[in-house]
TrEMBL record:
Keyword vocabulary terms for this entry: Membrane, Transmembrane, Transmembrane helix
Source species: Sphingomonas paucimobilis (Pseudomonas paucimobilis)
Transmembrane intervals: 21-40, 52-73, 80-96, 108-133
Name listed for the protein in its UniProt record: Uncharacterized protein
Domain of life per record: Bacteria
Length: 139
């Protein structure tokens, strides 16, 4: 039984979205654990609640823009996806700046963010390569 290119691509995208959903949950859990541990170490020190709120808004903006940008790229709208990724980078910068003021180890946050981005975009590249090879072999 030969699978059409559309069906093959649709199945691969469905599997990739499930995998990326699990990846987002995993990285979100790691981020939450790190933030929780960092805040527990600072419990004896006073910290600015407004700075903490800006940090969380920066992190939320980063996660939202990263996930939306990735989904838009999967739909084939690369320019719009890149726009969301750039907005996400700006939100990440704001979050890192506030994290530094709070006393977080920003290198850990940068490494985590970089791994997350590389994993999402790398999996998109793998899907593209698989679809290309499948299509190339059929023509």
């Amino acid at each position: 039984m030969v699978v059409s290119d559309r069906a093959f691509t649709a199945r691969n995208i469905a599997v990739l979205r499930e995998a990326q959903g699990a990846l987002n949950v995993a990285f979100g859990a790691i981020l939450s654990a790190y933030v929780g541990v960092s805040l527990s170490h600072m419990e004896s020190q006073p910290f600015d609640h407004h700075t903490l709120a800006r940090f969380f808004l920066g992190v939320a903006g980063f996660i939202l823009c990263l996930c939306v940008g990735n989904s838009v790229i999967l739909r084939g709208e690369v320019r719009l996806g890149i726009l969301f990724l750039v907005l996400g980078a700006g939100a990440a910068y704001i979050g890192l700046r506030e994290a530094r003021h709070l006393g977080f180890e920003t290198s850990v946050l940068r490494i985590l963010s970089t791994c997350w981005i590389v994993a999402l975009l790398g999996s998109n590249a793998v899907l593209t390569a698989i679809n290309y090879l499948h299509h190339r072999d059929r023509t």
